[in-house]
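Assemble and predict.
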Amino acid sequence: MSDLKPINFTRGIPAVESFPIDDMIDAAAAALKQHGSTLMQYGPSLGFAPLREWLAQQHRVEPNQVMLGNGSLQLLEFLSLLMIQPGDIVFTESPSYDRAITLLKRRGAEVIGIPLESDGPDLDALEGQLHHHVPRFFYLVPDFQNPSGVTCSAEKRRRIIDLAERYNFLLVEDSPYRHLRYRGTDEPLLFRLAPHRVLLMSSFSKLISPGMRVGFVMGDHELLAKIAKIAEDTYITPNVLAHGIAYEWCRRGCMKPQIEKLKALYVPRLEACLAALEKHMPDAQAVRPEGGFFVSVILPPPAPSKWVRIAAARHQLNLADGLAFFPDGGGEHFVRLPFCALTPEEIDEGIQRLAMSVQEVSRQAETV
Amino acid sequence: MSDLKPINFTRGIPAVESFPIDDMIDAAAAALKQHGSTLMQYGPSLGFAPLREWLAQQHRVEPNQVMLGNGSLQLLEFLSLLMIQPGDIVFTESPSYDRAITLLKRRGAEVIGIPLESDGPDLDALEGQLHHHVPRFFYLVPDFQNPSGVTCSAEKRRRIIDLAERYNFLLVEDSPYRHLRYRGTDEPLLFRLAPHRVLLMSSFSKLISPGMRVGFVMGDHELLAKIAKIAEDTYITPNVLAHGIAYEWCRRGCMKPQIEKLKALYVPRLEACLAALEKHMPDAQAVRPEGGFFVSVILPPPAPSKWVRIAAARHQLNLADGLAFFPDGGGEHFVRLPFCALTPEEIDEGIQRLAMSVQEVSRQAETV
């Protein structure tokens, strides 16, 4: 059994073979030739201006509504330093991105999870919570959500904005997977529907490269200026060299073909994942996403994911801790399956191992 | 008067003409060719392993005693998140690096300043404070200190370590300027004298480029592992692409000639600064550093730096706020003069304007 090759359904990482290394070498040389003195010096805390302008143009906003950082998670940290005092309430979907939950809790937030349904947050639950407390903000991933794969419907997006207006709270829309839609049509960005109510966060990690650490946030320029002051007090200047390289790469028109390349690579992986679930685990309740990095499943009742995870490890199948995605409990049967960094064959083999692990745990549960 | 070219004695930034842009283009291409898949993917929270190994070899420590980050200031932030609870006491020199003071206070630390003398911290004052409270750590810049330019004597370094041992607290040695010694001989690193007692922080910002954001911390590997967990929870992965480029540049042997280049560039600037002070401001009490980025002066009594700063701005001379370097008061006559990013002519002109501003303020003070 130990001869098996390990298969990791652990982290939402891009496929190594997707990285545009040669184009990046050219972009780095051109960026340093053109902007070397700027890119190697301390820079503005909002990030390298030409990349801010490029992003502003893409999103039809003003450059002062764009702030760059070192990846997007840390921008949420800065927002938390600005807006959250220990004991303050923040809403997230439940499940939600585990690193966001960890970061918010580290800051001392009380994180309340709004149950996620197949078309977005449960709005009755959201409104029920709002009767008790208004959060500092509601952090959500409306497109191809991490960890569930769920996309929020247009109708729910509009109703979430209505509630944010009525109860007066900020929406933090984290949107790193949005451009990776493999079928169906786009739902409107919350930020597009209500720019004054929303901070839009995203990054190049899932499109170009996580190792570059280029993330960004868009929204009200006065709020961004406050976030930038906190950024400056933390690291003086973001990694402007990487901003410059990413800018040059974007300026050359590399983004569109890169996204097409990613889709061509990832679509068969998503299909392999869904087919394998149907074949090997017909009883599991799976989200069938139209894009992004993640499929999620709810395992059948007798097999809690905690035990399945231990059993799977014996079959060289590594799973993330499903409980970590639930800010305030639940998720005992939840499993996230990040499919992008595995080949279709590995995915099929991995889900076979998962099915085997579930069967083992179910059998044990029956004999107890 | 408004035709004057502005002169900035504000920030401690390197000279733009010192950046090794062409070598950096070559290093970027080679690093991406050799390590592209690693540099573009998520990486370890401790940073890119080959650069950690290179630094470990330079400092004769083990690679697990080296952690890389995005510049060094943020590594102090992570240490603060780990070690400081609001209300905890931290010592710094007084004056000290203003950004470190800001960051420590933001975390809720009570920052107590140990007065700095021409050969390092006032040890009687340090011991006096230790009778009342033991700090979580003592943050100090022993070589060519920011903002004063002072270097701590070997004898004082040894006595500081004795006190740290006796009272059982950590020393945080920030050492970004150490390699820029223009004359005299090195004093021993605190970290070399007592590795178990010291966290050594430094960065490539003053040697290669601040825009790359490559900083590091060395010390006990168990403490570093805890700091790395906080880093991971904040930004997942540091900017490994920049780590890879810096590594390739170092591996090629570029560091030594770069340091020689910097010395050749900065020595005449330091000399111009000291000569101009002697010529235009013989009454000011100046620190005459043997290296680094900063000269500091204490203005003669009738001219508080707050008013001089306002007067100077009218002469297109921009000064930093001297008070910000003093964690708990004092420094009313303190002025920091970062000389590296100005030509000798600009430095002479800037100090003439400073002298003129001091005279104006002194005259006003006399007539009141």
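Chain B has a mean pLDDT of 96.
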